[in-house]
Design goal:
alpha+beta, Arc Repressor Mutant, subunit A, 2 domains, two-stranded antiparallel sheet, 5 helices, 6 strands, globular
Length: 207
């Protein structure tokens, strides 16, 4: 829990007051800030926990999170801290960073170099070492695909991604593997079934 993040969410977050869902967005942002660090990063409460905090429905929470992203108040965060704390992939909630000029996660602040943020809100590091040509123009060698981390994502025969897009009815996001796309059967997140829309080939069965 971060007092700085909660204070910003309570008092200074620029949520438009003319929106019908302004109060819903505010309580959702406060619930998220309750799990962020002092810099506004690494907030990953489960949807079920946010439902318990806010007394809102699961779909309302999911819709509010999307609206907060569209307003530029939050973005998807780095998953390393979450993955270290939650070893099971199918039990990992989405990570969010709060975007505030008062915190260190505002765009282009607190970065180590001039690499731009990606569409997921994280900094994309350049691969390889830059070299200068005779004309003084810097170039960067292309990474080797022999390394596992540099291999391109497999594609379907028609050129589209082989991973199905999320259906919107489960907690999964486009970046999650099919194995993580599940529907929880209880609030304790101990029993789940594969999402029938995102991963129909995996079949059913409670776990």
């Amino acid at each position: 829990m971060s007092i700085e993040a909660i204070d910003w969410a309570l008092n200074r977050a620029p949520i438009p007051t003319d929106r019908k869902d302004a109060s819903t967005l505010a309580i959702t942002l406060i619930a998220l800030a309750n799990h962020a660090g002092p810099d506004g990063r690494d907030a990953f409460p489960s949807v079920e926990r946010m439902v318990r905090y806010t007394r809102l429905s699961r779909r309302t929470i999911q819709r509010s999170l999307r609206s907060l992203e569209e307003l530029g108040l939050i973005c998807a965060g780095n998953t390393r801290v979450r993955d270290a704390k939650i070893p099971e992939a199918n039990a990992r909630p989405q990570v969010y960073d709060l975007l505030s000029p008062e915190l260190s996660t505002a765009p282009n602040e607190g970065r180590q170099d001039d690499a731009p943020p990606t569409s997921r809100g994280r900094q994309q590091k350049r691969l390889g070492a830059s070299t200068a040509t005779n004309g003084g123009v810097s170039t960067t060698p292309k990474p080797s695909f022999n390394r596992p981390g540099n291999r391109p994502t497999p594609s379907a025969p028609d050129g589209r991604s082989a991973v199905r897009p999320v259906c919107g009815h489960c907690d999964a996001r486009d970046s999650d593997p099919v194995s993580a796309r599940v529907v929880w059967l209880d609030e304790d997140r101990t029993r789940s079934v594969p999402c029938p829309r995102c991963a129909p080939q995996r079949g059913g069965g409670a776990r």
